[in-house]
Each structure stands twice: as structure tokens, then as C-alpha cells.
């Protein structure tokens, strides 16, 4: 036989409006972050294009940017073709050639601005 129990329950009244606001903030925040991902993705792609070693210009022209709203990411990549497959060899090097990074440095250069923009968006949403 169990001993005496104390039970406590409570109800928060008036929270419906705040919960609605938080849900709306989530959708608006997602939209703003997606926009910032695109802006910074383009900036990083352009930074990489300006750094990539150029002989024929094919690698430079092959650098593309895509982003995903569902997964919330931006991706900069080299669109591989039969004559443009060597981006990783240039970025990371091989046993026969030294690395000549172009994508990593572009991303690192933009990182402080990207973080600042995300922080600004979150702060603005909280102040609303």
C-alpha cells in the first residue's frame, strides 16, 4: 500500500497569444535565415572564384551555389564535367602538388559577417 501523495497542478492563462507569436516568429526567422544563407552563399562563391587558380577558367566558371530551405544550408560546389573534375585536387592538394585552397579561405573570411547577420536577425525577432 502506497503512502499519502501530494499532487500539484497549475494552468497558465493567457499564454495562447505568446505561443502563437513564437510559432509565427519561427516561420519568419526561417525565412530570414534562408535569405541570409543565399546572400552569404553568393558572397562565398564569388570569393572562391576570385581565389581559384585560373588556367583555362573552366573551374572558376564551374563554381555554383545552391541552398535548401528544408535542411537550412547553402552549398558551394564545382559542377563536375568531364573536363572540370579537379577542384578537390586544387583545394586539398595531392602527393604531387601542393594545396591551393580557394573555397575554405573564402568561407572563413565570410564567417564573422555571416554569424553577425544571424545574430542580428535573432535579436530583431526577439525585440518584436
What is the overall silhouette? elongated
Mean pLDDT figure: 84
Q: Work out the count of structural domains.
A: 1
Uncertain runs are none
Spatial sequence of strands, sheet with the most strands:
1-2
Query: What would you report as the Rg, rounded to the nearest angstrom?
Result: 24 Å
Summary?
This protein is mainly alpha-helical and 128 residues long.
Give the key terms:
mainly alpha; 128 residues; 56% helix
Structure characterization notes:
With 128 residues, the chain is mainly alpha-helical. It has one domain (24-127). Helix content is 56%, strand content 9%. It has four helices and two strands; from the N terminus they run ααββαα. A two-stranded antiparallel ribbon has the order 1-2. α1 (16-51) packs antiparallel against α4. The protein is elongated, with a radius of gyration of 24 Å. The chain starts with 15 loop residues before the first helix and ends with a helix.
